[in-house]
């Protein structure tokens, strides 16, 4: 097993390199980079913010008053490129970036005047709150519901819950979020839940119990919106996995020995049926934590990593884009390895060393 872990860790290096390289090449071809955006900003303001670059005011722009604010002098253009590091060839910039990332130096945001690490740490609590609670509640609902549906396959309970799951899956999370706001957050009906933020303004002055209640009070609507369609696929996967296992010979043998149904279900079937469910945990964690909450963060005014990544992409804030991409990709690869190790813990018959051989 140690050899398998070492091989997987070594394979992460070319995987990370390849992902960063592909994204770097794509970004180079995309129009509207930070240099172009800065030039457009200077043109729109007539060069009024020259001090940002340490320049001497409007003297570095075209000296013709009729053209001032519409053209950029070569000297100023070179200064803007140097400011963002675009005075170097693309491959030199890529090699420098990789060297910094290996030391977990993600640089500084182009437009926020803060380091990438500080931005991620600042936004992380919101995304962790949404992602972890959504994942825990999704698995907490989906697995018992999937087992119940498998045991009662074809019954009225199975049909009704299947309809409810499919309807929930068909409703987009952001649309359901808007409906929740209209109904319960001061829209056209009730005003029970807050509309923005993760905690209230007076959160620091609350008691411990008050802080916990206030925290979940703010999370109630966002979590409900993210859960409505999140458990559909996992519920059906759990159900199908259990149905497949229940029909196997070892289950019939266990029942023939006189074991109770719960002993058969949770002592024998559960361990084998959960393998497929656990296989999707790393991907579900990454998707829930860093991507699925983007629209929810926007709708409920929650300033998390999803919103940070979206704003970095639209503003071409490359340090934030690539720094978060590197960190999240590395985390995803480590979680996939963790998922494989959990496989062997649940079912010792799985031997990755033998499979690799």
UniProtKB/TrEMBL annotation:
In what way does this protein cross or attach to the membrane? Multi-pass membrane protein
Q: What lineage, starting at the top, does this entry show? A: Bacteria, Pseudomonadati, Pseudomonadota, Alphaproteobacteria, Rhodospirillales
Q: Where's it found, cell-wise?
A: Cell membrane
Transport among the record's keywords? yes
Where does the record place the ABC transmembrane type-1 domain? 124-343
Q: Tell me a GO biological process for this protein.
A: transmembrane transport
Q: What is this protein called?
A: Microcin ABC transporter permease
Q: Name one GO cellular component term.
A: plasma membrane
According to the record, the segments passing through the membrane are 9-30, 130-151, 163-195, 215-238, 273-300, 320-346
Give the main location: membrane
Under the heading PROSITE patterns, the entry gives: ABC_TM1
* Keywords assigned: Cell membrane, Membrane, Transmembrane, Transmembrane helix, Transport
Matching entries from CDD domains are given as:
TM_PBP2
Q: Which domain of life is it from?
A: Bacteria
Q: Which family does it belong to?
A: Belongs to the binding-protein-dependent transport system permease family.
**From what organism does this protein derive?**
Elstera litoralis
């Amino acid at each position: 097993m140690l050899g398998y872990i070492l091989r997987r860790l070594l394979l992460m290096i070319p995987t990370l390199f390849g992902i960063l390289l592909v994204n770097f090449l794509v970004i180079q071809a995309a129009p509207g980079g930070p240099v172009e955006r800065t030039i457009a900003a200077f043109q729109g303001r007539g060069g009024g913010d020259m001090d940002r670059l340490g320049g001497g005011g409007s003297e570095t722009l075209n000296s013709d008053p009729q053209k001032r604010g519409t053209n950029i002098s070569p000297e100023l253009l070179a200064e803007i490129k140097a400011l963002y590091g675009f005075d170097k060839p693309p491959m030199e910039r890529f090699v420098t970036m990789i060297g910094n990332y290996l030391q977990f130096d993600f640089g500084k945001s182009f437009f926020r005047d803060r380091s990438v690490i500080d931005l991620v740490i600042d936004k992380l609590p919101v995304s962790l709150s949404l992602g972890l609670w959504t994942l825990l509640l999704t698995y907490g609902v989906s697995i018992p519901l999937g087992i119940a549906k498998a045991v009662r396959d074809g019954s009225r309970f199975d049909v009704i819950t299947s309809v409810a799951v499919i309807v929930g899956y068909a409703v987009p999370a952001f649309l359901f979020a808007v409906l929740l706001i209209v109904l319960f957050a001061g829209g056209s009906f009730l005003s029970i839940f807050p509309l923005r933020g993760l905690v209230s303004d007076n959160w620091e002055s609350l008691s411990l119990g008050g802080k916990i209640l206030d925290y979940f009070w703010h999370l109630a609507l966002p979590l409900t919106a993210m859960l409505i369609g999140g458990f559909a696929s996992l519920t059906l996967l759990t159900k199908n996995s259990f149905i497949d296992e229940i029909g196997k010979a070892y289950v019939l043998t266990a029942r023939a020995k006189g074991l109770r149904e719960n002993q058969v279900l949770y002592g024998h079937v559960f361990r084998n049926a959960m393998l497929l469910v656990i296989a999707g945990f790393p991907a579900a964690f990454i998707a829930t934590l860093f991507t699925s909450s983007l629209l929810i963060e926007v709708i409920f005014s929650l300033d998390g990593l999803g919103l940070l990544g979206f704003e970095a992409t639209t503003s071409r804030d490359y340090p934030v884009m690539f720094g978060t991409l590197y960190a999240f990709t590395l985390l995803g690869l480590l979680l996939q390895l963790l998922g494989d190790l959990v496989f062997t813990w649940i079912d010792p018959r799985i031997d990755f060393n033998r499979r690799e051989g």
